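pasting for ref
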Amino acid sequence: MFVPLMLSLLLPPPTPSAVPSPSLANPSAADPPIKVWLSNDVLMRGDRARMHVKATQDGYLVVLRADADGHIRVLFPVDPGDSNFVRGGRKLEIRGRGGREAFTVDEREGSGTVLAARSTTPLKFDEFARGGHWDYRTLSTQAADGDAERALLDIVQRMAGDHFDYDEVSYTVSNQPRYRRYAGWHGPWYDPFYYPRFGLRVGFIFGRPYRYRLFR
């Protein structure tokens, strides 16, 4: 009787089992409702930008772009009559007409903004559509005051009504040439999405590095 009592006083109390926090038990619980990202946030005129969107829940998606000149375009859906319902938890690549990249940079210099919004109820496009296509006369001057995010949110508000989730990302258009280096015995890798078609290539074979010097 005495010995068990002494042992209970000397031994430390048992450690309670750890209970994981909700964010650790379910990683998706910490994800934002919607996320949009570009393949590169520094682009040049003529570049074709790739874009992805991921929403945590099912819903109706619209993606808008305000370029550096203040012009607004709808990137998704391509046409107002196309399906814009997306499944939650899936990464979606935004594609342009004909399966091309999301958009081609046509401004010379400045900053552009892309905004993706998800609504739990169907979006209403009638105000911005005409003849089965987007009516850019109703969008072309929306960002003329320079506040691109506010202009894009105003459009989404008129499409979605009271509640929607959104995310936005900005990109910079530069007119400075870029330099990158690639290595490999088989030669360099040329990425047509980010670089012009013409340039000067200097390199060595048998594992020596290659360099592209690009000029306009």
